[in-house]
Design brief:
Length: 326
């Protein structure tokens, strides 16, 4: 057997394929529910469903209950570690919130997943307070995006007030009281200056957004510049084939065209007046020129940084789960 000397004649073909993930089929993942009780009813599930994604009781039972069980174990371990560390340091520190990051493409169902997890996790007795903050609120206001000439790159990393986002999540992690996050309106397509979400010592904070798994960047003197992902205790990436996500995006656009866009006050009201073929063409252009570029350049590249990847099929059903083992 040939010996491999690092740095000498290294050939990737000589290395075994190593994956940091353990892969579960849907059936294998569903069995991990064990005896976790169902704490949501049909009305809850209907209210938690998204525009395109109609949740079923079966999906919650087979996918989200096992996930809530896993996260409950992580939260309990994190709480215990914080307690023993405080005793070791001789300090009486307050509780440290568990921060859960949720990433993925536009139209992939992040918001629905976040709402379901918030509802399920809040029903566990040892972490009843679960807050949810979408990072859309940390987008720069439209007037600033226009001034910078990057309105067509809304949702890209440079379109966010990253410093404010890091300050927010750092304050929450440090146990500060009444930390405020800005609110974004998809109806008005802008940050709402007079609205905020107040986060006050949650047991769990779910942070949901397109680019939340991006790493911090290095600077010349070697100091790390932190990013949101540095504060996560656990992270999830919602995945699907690109062609499938595009189809979901177009269908969502057409549905909004028949509903929210019809309101004259809506930012995208002009699209409600288009013929269907023109609306499809416009939605396809938005997908190809903006959302697909952001997905390929900034979002998809962070997928393997997640602790768990949930892959969906064309029917919005999770068909496999990849859980980090390394």
């Amino acid at each position: 057997m040939a010996q491999i000397e690092f740095g000498v004649g290294f050939d990737e073909a000589d290395m075994p394929e190593i994956s940091p993930f353990q892969v579960f089929s849907r059936d294998e993942w569903a069995r991990l529910r064990a005896d976790t009780p169902m704490t949501l009813d049909e009305l809850d599930i209907e209210q938690l469903s998204g525009i395109n994604e109609r949740l079923s009781m079966l999906e919650v039972e087979e996918i989200y209950l096992p996930l809530s069980r896993l996260l409950n174990l992580h939260v309990a371990a994190s709480q215990e570690l914080h307690a023993v560390t405080s005793r070791f340091l001789g300090k009486q520190n307050g509780k440290m919130p568990f921060i859960l990051g949720l990433a993925g493409s536009v139209a992939v169902g992040k918001s629905t997943t976040a709402r379901v997890l918030q509802a399920l996790l809040a029903r566990w007795p040892n972490h009843p307070r679960v807050d949810l903050v979408p990072t859309d609120g940390f987008l720069l206001p439209n007037i600033e995006l226009e001034a910078k000439g990057i309105m067509n790159r809304k949702g890209f990393p440079e379109s966010f007030d990253t410093a404010r986002l890091i300050k927010f999540i750092s304050d929450v992690k440090a146990g500060k009281r009444n930390v405020e996050a800005p609110v974004y309106s998809h109806f008005f397509y802008d940050v709402m200056p007079s609205q905020t979400i107040t986060v006050d010592l949650p047991d769990i904070l779910i942070v949901e957004g397109l680019n939340v798994l991006q790493p911090g960047r290095a600077v010349k003197d070697g100091r790390a510049v932190p990013f949101v992902s540095d504060y996560f205790d656990f992270s999830i990436y919602i995945d699907a084939d690109v062609e499938v996500i595009e189809d979901w995006y177009l269908k969502r656009f057409l549905r909004l065209r028949e509903t929210a866009f019809r309101d004259p006050a809506a930012y995208f009201h002009r699209y409600a007046k288009l013929r269907e073929d023109d609306a499809i063409a416009r939605a396809s252009a938005l997908w190809t020129n903006i959302n697909l570029v952001n997905l390929n350049e900034n979002i998809l590249t962070t997928r393997e940084r997640a602790d768990l990847i949930l892959h969906k099929d064309a029917d919005h059903l999770v068909d496999s789960a990849l859980l980090r083992k390394l």
